[in-house]
């Protein structure tokens, strides 16, 4: 009855069936207490050419599936905690080597015992020495992307996949008789040049693009996805596995896609709702249950499954215990490293093309991929809920910089400062408007316009920004609540440069926020310049001493961020001797070689003649509240028309 109707060829019908499976597969799997991954793979098998033949392999499904494969690795690179990786890079190296060597030994040995030739066994071993981050979606669902064990696993992914790629290349070249010096010289040169271009030149080009043409989020999203595709294609052309290229370019884009921002959510939503499900369904369509039921194939698959799972378990348990992480964290390391897809399929295809393995071995490898997905999904579902999300209280200063926006005349200057502070940590700006409970509709519209302006300024500075309009009982309460809810790490407040006797030091609202803020506060009096010429730190006799160390340290940290982002000179103007200031800078871990020190008597009196157009002036919080108010106001008067920032530690 259905002869001639199946497989479906109408594009609309193919699209409808594919996304009905994307919808229904995880829901049915959840009812059966199976991981969503398995639901999608089995759904693909049932409607594929080897079972119901509802859908045949076609360009549309293959393309979406391939993009999903690239996306899995690309997202891993985007979300890698670079600061955590730098602090714990030894974890990634140890786990990467362990999760590569263990499968190479156990899986290769198991394949040889099952009667497979040594060269083919080595290629199969390299297939399972790599891994695909099949369960990374579960990790992000439980907010574990910054967890130490996850960071180690993501770093290990790069190490293991590159090492497996090299083994595959050596074995394939040996089988093809193409292993001369010229071949390896060109391959090594291509790999080195590729890595340098992706990790050094691509970030620079991306920053230039984001601050110029790419100030629209739709353009940025297209840029990121096209970059993923180009990196994969170029990697394939020079003999590198495309998934490695996707992971590397994800690392290159990492600083420009801060976690929790709009662009990050759009990339994640598109991948996890379209690309990854399509990849899992396309993988399921490859399965032929009739061929897989052959006794020899099942026996080989069973042996390879045991060898692969045990090898990854040994690697994760051993590395995790060496790292000192908990049992559930070792479990999540295992779940991230046991899943197979890209590397296994690529290596199997190479071995098949070289006539080293036959259809039975290919089907066995596909069964291992399915089994590894099941094990990965079950282990992730078991261990992820038992891990506490990492504490973000020690996050870098620029991770999420909150800036209240209320005055159209100062929005640009305040957001620009916040963006420069955030850029050093690849962070994001949170621009908030606080309105009273009885706010009128016209006030809401006006403040939304301010939010739009803040967004344009931040995007123009190359940073990501989140905007919100908050209704609260008091302005100070609204700002403080936003800092807590948005997990802010710093706060930039606008200041008019003076306060009368009834308003306190900065003004009643700012004084309350400074007193109660759980994060450092940068009180900013915007100047009349639209560019940064120099960054000037002013140190008076009150600012050099144990009591003011925290404020001075914060002032230098902010000054360093601003000077690097604006490519401006860093200058210190002080009434202390130069040697004393240099000693203080060494104690604060400031690179004194990059700083010009001007020592004069009567700093504030001489300051107007020493400042230049475009200067941004900073000072730390003096040791007492009275000096804080008096000194800040005197500095603001002395630095008329210049941007003044008072750094207040929490």
How would you portray this structure in words?
- By secondary structure, this protein is an alpha/beta fold.
- It has three domains: 325 residues, Na+/H+ antiporter like fold (Up-down Bundle); 133 residues, HUPs (Rossmann fold), CATH 3.40.50.620; 124 residues, Rossmann fold.
- It contains 25 helices and ten strands.
- The protein has a ten-stranded mixed sheet, sandwiched between helices.
- The longest helix is centred in the N-terminal third of the chain and has 31 residues.
- It is elongated and about 90 Å long.
- The relative contact order is 0.09.
- About 1% of the residues have low confidence.
Describe the structure using short key phrases.
650 residues, alpha/beta, Rossmann fold, 25 helices, 10 strands, elongated
Strands, helices and their partners?
Blueprint: H1 11-31, H2 36-47, H3 59-79, H4 82-87, H5 89-113, H6 118-129, H7 136-141, H8 148-176, H9 181-211, H10 217-237, H11 242-253, H12 262-285, H13 289-292, H14 295-323, H15 327-338, H16 342-353, H17 359-383, E1 400-404, H18 408-423, E2 428-435, H19 441-460, E3 464-471, H20 475-485, E4 490-494, H21 508-516, E5 521-525, E6 534-539, H22 549-566, E7 569-574, H23 578-587, E8 595-599, H24 603-610, E9 616-620, H25 625-638, E10 643-648
Parallel strand pairs: 1-2, 1-4, 2-3, 4-5, 6-7, 6-9, 7-8, 9-10
Antiparallel strand pairs: 5-10
């Amino acid at each position: 009855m259905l002869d001639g109707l199946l497989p479906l060829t109408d594009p609309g019908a193919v699209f409808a069936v594919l996304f009905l499976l994307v919808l229904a597969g995880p829901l049915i799997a959840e009812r059966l207490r199976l991981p969503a991954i398995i639901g999608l793979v089995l759904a693909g098998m049932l409607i594929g050419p080897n079972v119901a033949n509802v859908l045949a392999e076609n360009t549309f499904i293959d393309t979406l599936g391939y993009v999903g494969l690239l996306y899995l690795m690309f997202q891993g690179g985007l979300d890698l905690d670079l600061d955590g990786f730098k602090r714990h890079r030894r974890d990634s190296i140890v786990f990467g080597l362990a999760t590569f060597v263990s499968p190479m030994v156990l899986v290769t040995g198991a394949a040889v015992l099952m009667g497979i030739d040594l060269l083919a066994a080595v290629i199969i071993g390299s297939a399972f020495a790599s891994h695909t981050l099949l369960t990374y979606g579960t990790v992000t669902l439980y907010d574990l992307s910054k967890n130490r064990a996850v960071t180690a696993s993501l770093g290990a992914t790069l190490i293991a996949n590159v090492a497996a790629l090299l083994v595959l290349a050596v074995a394939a070249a040996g089988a093809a008789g193409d292993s001369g010096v010229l071949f390896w010289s060109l391959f090594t040169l291509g790999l080195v040049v590729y890595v340098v271009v992706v990790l050094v030149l691509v970030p620079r080009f991306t920053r230039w693009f984001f601050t110029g043409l790419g100030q629209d989020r739709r353009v940025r999203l297209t840029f990121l996805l096209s970059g993923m595709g180009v990196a994969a294609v170029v990697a394939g052309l020079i003999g590198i596995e495309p998934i490695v290229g996707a992971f590397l370019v994800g690392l290159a884009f990492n600083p420009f896609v801060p976690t929790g921002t709009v662009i990050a959510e759009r990339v994640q939503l598109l991948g996890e709702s379209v690309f990854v499900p399509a990849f899992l369904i396309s993988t399921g369509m490859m399965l032929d249950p009739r061929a897989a039921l052959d006794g020899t194939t099942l026996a080989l698959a069973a042996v390879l499954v045991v060898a692969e799972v045990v090898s990854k378990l040994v690697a994760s348990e051993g590395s995790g215990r060496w790292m000192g992480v908990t049992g559930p964290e070792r479990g999540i390391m295992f779940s991230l490293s046991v899943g197979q897809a890209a590397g296994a399929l690529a290596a199997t295809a190479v071995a098949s093309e070289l006539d080293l393995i036959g259809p039975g071995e290919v089907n066995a490898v596909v069964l291992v991929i399915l089994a590894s997905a099941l094990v990965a999904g079950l282990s992730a579902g078991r261990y992820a809920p038992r891990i506490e999300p990492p504490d973000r209280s020690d996050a870098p200063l620029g991770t999420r910089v909150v800036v209240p926006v209320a005055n159209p005349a100062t929005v640009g200057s305040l957001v620009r400062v916040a963006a420069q502070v955030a850029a050093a940590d690849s962070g994001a700006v949170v621009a908030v408007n606080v309105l009273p409970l009885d706010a009128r509709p016209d006030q809401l519209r006006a403040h939304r316009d301010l939010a739009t302006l803040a967004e344009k300024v931040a995007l123009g500075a190359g940073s990501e920004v989140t905007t919100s309009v908050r209704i609260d009982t008091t302005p100070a309460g609204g700002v403080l609540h936003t800092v807590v809810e948005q997990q802010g790490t710093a706060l930039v407040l606008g200041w008019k440069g003076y306060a009368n006797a009834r308003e306190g030091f900065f003004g009643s609202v700012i004084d309350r926020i400074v007193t109660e803020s759980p994060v450092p506060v940068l009180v900013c009096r915007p100047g009349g310049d639209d560019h940064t010429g120099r960054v000037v730190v002013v140190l008076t006799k009150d600012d050099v001493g144990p009591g003011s160390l925290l404020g001075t340290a914060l002032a230098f940290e902010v000054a360093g961020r601003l000077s690097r982002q604006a490519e401006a000179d860093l200058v210190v103007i002080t009434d202390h001797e130069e040697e004393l200031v240099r000693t203080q800078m060494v104690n604060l871990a400031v690179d004194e070689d990059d700083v010009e020190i001007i020592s004069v008597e009567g700093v504030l009196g001489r300051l107007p003649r020493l400042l230049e157009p475009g200067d941004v002036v900073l000072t730390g919080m003096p040791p007492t509240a009275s000096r804080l108010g008096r000194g800040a106001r005197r500095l603001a008067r002395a630095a008329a028309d210049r941007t003044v920032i008072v750094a207040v530690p929490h």
